[in-house]
Design brief:
The protein has 292 residues and is mainly α. It has one domain. The strands form 4 sheets. The protein has a two-stranded antiparallel sheet. A two-stranded antiparallel ribbon has the order 2-3. Strands 5-6 form a two-stranded antiparallel ribbon. α7 packs antiparallel against α8. The longest helix is centred in the middle third of the chain and has 25 residues.
Length: 292
């Protein structure tokens, strides 16, 4: 391939897997050159990118997670080496399970090869699993929430390309996982159960760190997306009452700031109105349930 058309490069210095000692060269994206054409921001704070005539469609999220091509140990780069002996032992024991999970959904995948959408989606599936065994110092709950949401996005992209596949169901599974974990994240941020400074970029995408306000907003978005499917109507109403409290924190005085930009406030207001409309509709249907 013409070097001018490359979108990635291999790091000169090799990485060594702390679980199995396999040596590999991490693939990273090149910047600039019109590779990424930023499009609209979705309601889930995902940045959409227009297809480049020169480079084609690019998925920046596919290159974020470091994955050992040998044992499939996965983590964000800052956490890849900061792993405790007990964690190494556990992750080593589960190597076959990780490989089996990836094979089940994707068949044979070569993490030594160039990243593409399938490998990117697999990397987040593996990250969700691996962070389940990491210590609190690396803020694993935050990383699981973020990885689950990104997995939902990328599996959704795969489903759009192949509607007959099982990718849509997998995307829905990870959306549910993201919803459950983001609720836990808010509790952790209140109690200090995990160090926030270990999170780094809270995302949810790579182009902007939306911080605590982004987490509040995303939890509300996921409550609407997933919580509205709750079969128990009273539980569903409880979810939405909690969701409105999240959004109320975002409203504050209604003024924009560095952490509360106008586009986030606009999205918050729209979501708040949508929730009120849904609650009113449910109240009319049941005739007896009242907002908690």
């Amino acid at each position: 391939m013409d070097k001018d058309l490359k979108i990635t490069y291999r790091q000169k210095n090799s990485s060594v897997c702390p679980v199995c000692s396999f040596e590999f060269h991490r693939e990273d994206m090149l910047s600039g050159g019109g590779r990424l054409i930023a499009g609209k921001l979705s309601d889930e704070l995902r940045r959409n990118y227009d297809v480049s005539k020169k480079y084609g469609r690019i998925y920046p999220l596919a290159y974020v997670v470091s994955v050992c091509p040998s044992c499939y140990y996965s983590a964000y780069p800052k956490d890849f080496d900061s792993i405790l002996p007990g964690e190494i032992e556990k992750l080593r024991e589960l190597t076959a399970a990780r490989k089996s999970a990836v094979k089940k959904f994707f068949g044979m995948i070569d993490f030594n090869g160039d990243r593409e959408l399938r490998i990117g989606a697999a990397s987040y599936l593996l990250a969700v699993d691996c962070y389940s065994y990491r210590n609190k110092k690396v803020a694993p709950t935050f990383k699981i929430a973020l990885s689950s949401l990104r997995a939902a996005w990328l599996f959704g992209d795969l489903a759009a390309d192949d509607p007959s596949s099982s990718y849509k169901k997998i995307s829905e599974f990870f959306y549910k996982k993201a919803f459950q974990t983001y609720v836990k994240v808010l509790d952790i941020m209140q109690t200090g159960g995990e160090p926030v400074d270990a999170v780094g970029n809270m995302g949810p995408d790579t182009d902007k760190n939306w911080g605590y306000e982004g987490i509040l907003y995303l939890t509300a978005v996921l409550t609407v997306k997933i919580g509205s499917k709750e079969q128990d109507p009273r539980k569903r109403m409880e979810n939405f009452a909690k969701c409105k409290r999240y959004l109320s924190r975002l409203f504050g005085a209604g003024k924009t700031s560095k952490t509360r930009p106008s586009d986030l406030l606009d999205k918050t207001r729209d979501l708040y109105d949508k929730i009120n409309a849904m609650i009113e509709e449910w109240n009319q249907e049941t005739g007896s349930l009242k907002e908690g």
